[in-house]
């Protein structure tokens, strides 16, 4: 085939990333301003956890949960950016055949689809639990895909498909993700899935397990991509690892929230929104790299 896509870095067979588009010279220094929010949000959650009263004493004046605002913000900052990442990853996979790109795209598609569906459903009377269930499960699925792709890249695994099988595998994978989202949403709406949230009681142990696993896996994938970022001097991977880290912090905030819309809840949400913005910056850097940087070496399939 012709030129490989330079939007997203490819793993080399030696265990290290080849220099991708968006990679900077050896003197490159990461954006300190971009990294500052990560510890700041961790600190804010800790401070709010100390100074806020317990759930039983939390006054209504601290609650701020306008109808549909949450859904609108998640749609703009999480779903739309995730769909863009899924599109770029799919396009790159079709050109390079890298399974890692297919996994990243699948993660973004699952996260974006469940977020937009679940947050809007949560505004329908009687469907709050279904909406929460869909969003939280989508986060777990996305975190598994991200961790798998990070692990494969870290080990230097060079898994590529031939050009004849790429379209069919991509179609099967993306349709599989969307089918899972659709069927799981129906199961949640029909109360076939154990509850994640009970009005008047709060989150159930199942939700705690799912969200905790998601937060841990997002943190692991952030670490894996962060290590790759500094070894490859990649601007793209830098913003990607920050995006995963901010998402993990946003999910952790769920464990410390006192009530829907309290300061901890909004701190966690804003952390996730900022993570979505970081994903967008990563994609923008990839597109810039495709047009403004020298070509990288062609793959063996070129």
Folded structure, characterized:
It contains 9 helices and 2 strands; from the N terminus they run ααααααββααα. It has 302 residues and is an all-alpha fold. A two-stranded antiparallel ribbon has the order 1-2. The model is unreliable at 1-27 and 291-302 (pLDDT under 50).
The number of domains is 1
Mean model confidence by pLDDT: 83
Helix content: 55-70%
Shape: globular
Extended strand count: 2
Distance between the termini: 5 Å
Strand order of the largest sheet: 1-2
Helix count equals 9
What is the gyration radius calculated from CA atoms?
Answer: 20 Å
How much of the polypeptide forms β-strand, as a percent range? under 5%
The H/E string reads HHHHHHEEHHH
Stretches where pLDDT falls below 50 for ≥5 residues?
Answer: 1-27, 291-302
State the major sheet: 2 strands, antiparallel
Structural class by secondary-structure content: mainly alpha
């Amino acid at each position: 085939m012709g030129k490989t896509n330079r939007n997203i870095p490819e793993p080399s067979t030696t265990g290290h990333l080849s220099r991708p588009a968006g990679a900077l010279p050896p003197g490159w220094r990461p954006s300190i301003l971009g990294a500052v929010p990560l510890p700041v949000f961790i600190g804010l959650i800790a401070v709010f956890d100390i100074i806020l009263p317990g759930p039983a004493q939390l006054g209504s004046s601290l609650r701020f949960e306008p109808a549909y605002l949450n859904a609108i913000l998640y749609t703009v900052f999480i779903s739309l950016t995730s769909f863009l990442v899924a599109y770029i990853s799919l396009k790159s996979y079709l050109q390079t055949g890298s399974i890692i790109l297919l996994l990243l795209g699948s993660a973004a598609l699952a996260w974006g689809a469940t977020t937009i569906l679940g947050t809007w459903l949560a505004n329908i009377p009687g469907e709050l639990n279904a909406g929460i269930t869909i969003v939280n499960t989508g986060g777990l699925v996305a975190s598994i895909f991200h961790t798998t792709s990070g692990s494969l890249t870290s080990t230097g695994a060079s898994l590529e498909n031939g050009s004849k099988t790429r379209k069919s595998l991509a179609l099967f994978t993306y349709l599989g993700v969307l089918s899972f989202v659709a069927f799981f949403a129906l199961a949640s709406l029909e109360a076939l899935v154990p509850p994640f949230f009970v009005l008047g009681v709060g989150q159930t142990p199942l939700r705690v397990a799912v969200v905790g696993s998601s937060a841990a896996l997002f943190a692991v994938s952030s670490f894996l991509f962060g290590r790759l970022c500094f070894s490859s001097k990649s601007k793209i991977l830098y913003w990607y690892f920050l995006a995963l880290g901010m998402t993990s912090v946003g999910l952790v905030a769920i464990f410390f929230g006192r009530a829907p819309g309290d300061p901890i809840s909004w701190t966690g949400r804003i952390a996730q929104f900022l993570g979505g913005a970081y994903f967008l910056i990563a994609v923008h850097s990839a597109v810039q790299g495709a047009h403004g940087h020298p070509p990288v070496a062609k793959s063996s399939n070129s």
